């Protein structure tokens, strides 16, 4: 039975080493929140989106001094034929053609070439929307180091850059997972400047970063260890990463669409539901007519955290939502 002893003692060592590592290297937590160093998919040249997506143009924006951020612009499908061989300026001008523009803000791991992100871009392009998908600073081929303020600055810059070209077209922020925190931070800043975003779509969104970490299945394995909880609070306080969606939605009066799967294994369903309920209260408090909707996906569908793009009705849901905005505009 000596193999069993070895296995058991390795497992115990592994279990105990996590809090010790966190104590000695608290920056590990930040590297989990911003998992930008996981550069998957590995063998993709981000400057060649044509390997994964048709009619997509890759470009870089300088969102701040010394920060360059990689962006993909995928055209509405109806424009694909015209796009062959066109210049960067031509792509930029199409943003003002009247088709809605979606700014896609991705989650915490990997880059803009990940499969579930690319699939969503294909669906939105087929629905005849422009999609702009960026890698925040430190992610993909973008320069710099991630931070909450930095990610928010990058996304805000892209939104304002798009608005300069898009004239009267709708520009919608779409935040998935960590991107939901970026989306509401940007929306708060825009609203403070008197130009609230036309619409916000949140997919697999959390209430705030602390609750997300304490709800994580791995954290739960440790919470009963004496001192672990205060260690985590200490690290979180020092890292200064908040992403307070729950506070942000108390003031935001833009139209909102919440998408959440009941079997989401990373961000529990109740968090999306809580944001939805708060948004309804905000809507009532400010007596706005802006639509606030939530679509829940039954657990049997197995969409979990990343696979809502598998819903065959997704583009109808988004179209229905954006059509209502036009009526309120
Ligand atoms: C591009 O479009 C063509 C024709 O519709 C299709 O066959 C091809 O698979 C698409 N390429 C990618 C990378 O999606
Ligand atoms: C698809 O979405 C539309 C718009 O939200 C909705 O009216 C319709 O009932 C949905 N269809 C299915 C099959 O879920």
UniProtKB/TrEMBL annotation:
<dbReference type="InterPro" id="IPR029058">
    <property type="entry name" value="AB_hydrolase_fold"/>
</dbReference>
<dbReference type="GO" id="GO:0005789">
    <property type="term" value="C:endoplasmic reticulum membrane"/>
</dbReference>
<keyword id="KW-1133">Transmembrane helix</keyword>
<dbReference type="GO" id="GO:0006660">
    <property type="term" value="P:phosphatidylserine catabolic process"/>
</dbReference>
<feature type="transmembrane region" description="Helical">
    <location>
        <begin position="12"/>
        <end position="29"/>
    </location>
</feature>
<dbReference type="GO" id="GO:0052651">
    <property type="term" value="P:monoacylglycerol catabolic process"/>
</dbReference>
<dbReference type="Pfam" id="PF00561">
    <property type="entry name" value="Abhydrolase_1"/>
</dbReference>
<dbReference type="InterPro" id="IPR000073">
    <property type="entry name" value="AB_hydrolase_1"/>
</dbReference>
<dbReference type="GO" id="GO:0004622">
    <property type="term" value="F:phosphatidylcholine lysophospholipase activity"/>
</dbReference>
<dbReference type="GO" id="GO:0047372">
    <property type="term" value="F:monoacylglycerol lipase activity"/>
</dbReference>
<keyword id="KW-0472">Membrane</keyword>
<protein>
    <submittedName>
        <fullName>Abhydrolase domain containing 12B</fullName>
    </submittedName>
</protein>
<keyword id="KW-0812">Transmembrane</keyword>
<feature type="domain" description="AB hydrolase-1">
    <location>
        <begin position="100"/>
        <end position="205"/>
    </location>
</feature>
